[in-house]
Amino acid sequence: MSPVGWLVLLLPALLRRGSSGVAAAGKVPAVIVFGDSSVDTGNNNFIPTIARSNFWPYGRDYADGLPTGRFSNGRLATDFISEAFGLPPCIPAYLDTNLTIDQLASGVSFASAATGLDNATAGVLSVITIGEQLQYFREYKERLRIAKGEAEAGEIIGEALYIWSIGTNDFIENYYNLPERRMQYTVAEYEAYLLGLAESAIRDVHSLGGRKMDFTGLTPMGCLPAERIGNRDNPGECNEDYNAVARSFNGKLQGLAARLNKDLPGLQLVYADTYKILASVVDKPADYGFENAVQGCCGTGLFEAGYFCSLSTSLLCQNANKYVFFDAIHPTEKMYKIIADTVMNTTLNVFL
After folding, report:
1. pLDDT, tens only, 280-335
2. pLDDT by residue (tens digit) across 90-133?
3. pLDDT score recorded for residue 352
4. How many angstroms separate the CA atoms of 218 and 182, rounded?
5. Which strand ranges, in their side-by-side order, compose the sheet holding 31-35?
6. Omega before 57 cis (within 30°)?
7. Any residues with CB less than 8 A from the CB of 107 and at least 6 apart, and which?
8. Eight-state DSSP code of residue 91
9. What percent of the chain is predicted at pLDDT more than 70?
10. Nearest by Cα to 346 from 195, 213, 159, 211
11. CA atoms within 13 A on the CB side of 50
12. CA 84, CA 340: separation in Å to the nearest integer?
């Protein structure tokens, strides 16, 4: 097992040490999530959109083998991160009305599949905007105050880990697929526009009491199976232009994180580099125990996602653990676990 893996396994034990040592300084009572399908644990089940995955074969390797609304065969990276902090192993979706505020107090996802930092991206498939996610967070904070009292609610909000995973759809769903933003902005200008929106969202959560934050960078989006098949210049290969944009955006995101850590009192904003790990896995999948990094497990694995996966189950792979991707866009549970290990390694020294 890698050193990162051992650290993730040891972390819950460290956190259980009570008030002694580093554990007290680094307590994380909840994991609170904003973002897109990479971290949506089922919110889109409760809104009128086709951007859903609450049907088989999604969730086939989840605890009970049932779909949850997660775009994967099992758990997501944020679920593993929650578990690593000694919290529940699955983060609930905020819009699930069957859940009480007590069940949401140790972690909640406001994320919505197919959304982006840009409201125009959310509008493509009528999903939850980042502004609406922030409004839900305000509502959540008030519900906590009523249920737990001012002091306990304040501690949860102030000590929680906030994870942001968003931005890919702004490029592959919006900028490169629809003409409006390309007519308005160059790529560099659009990056700046998105970073401004990210800064505003971070400042909003900070003003509401959030302090420990992890902003996940873009992955090599040009290597998603759907982008490989759509690569007109070199079909079947990674779209290196898209990957270059992801690297450029990530570099600027790191700069934003450094600046906000100086500007906002008490903020601990960490940039999580998931680009390198996914690029490494795609480049040498066998080194990580995978056999296929080019196709998804579902259907042909080249273009199927969402409802198209449910129409292609006769072609479903037998063992998703051999695949980096479950559908043509989203990773398998095994890949999400590797991503979670990487994020935990990034945040370990900051929040402990």
Report:
1. 999 999 999 999 999 999 999 999 999 999 988 889 999 999 999 999 999 999 99
2. 999 999 999 999 999 999 999 999 999 999 999 999 999 999 99
3. 62
4. 19
5. 107-109, 31-35, 161-165, 212-216, 268-272
6. yes
7. 30, 31, 32, 33, 82, 87, 88, 91, 92
8. P
9. 91
10. 213
11. 9
12. 9
* DSSP secondary structure letter of residue 311: T
Indicate if the pLDDT at residue 6 is higher than 90.
no
Query: 200 and 129 in contact (C-beta within 8 Å)?
Result: no
200 is catalytic: no
- Distance CA(313)–CA(311), nearest Å, equals 6
Domains along the sequence of the chain with CATH? 29-275 (3.40.50.1110)
Q: Is 248 a catalytic residue?
A: no
Please say if 330 is a catalytic residue: yes
- In this predicted model, what pLDDT tens digit does every residue of 207-260 receive, in sequence order? 999 999 999 999 999 999 999 999 999 999 999 999 999 999 999 999 999 999
Out of 36, 37, 206, 273, pick the active-site residue: 37
Q: Which is catalytic among the residues 118, 170, 214, 327?
A: 327
Please choose, from the candidates 347, 321, 316, 319, the residue with its C-alpha nearest in 3D space to the C-alpha of residue 336.
321
pTM for the full predicted model: 0.92
Residue in this structure with the two tokens 């969730």, named with its chain if needed: 59
Largest CA distance in the chain: 59
- From the list 206, 214, 330, 341, the catalytic residue is 330
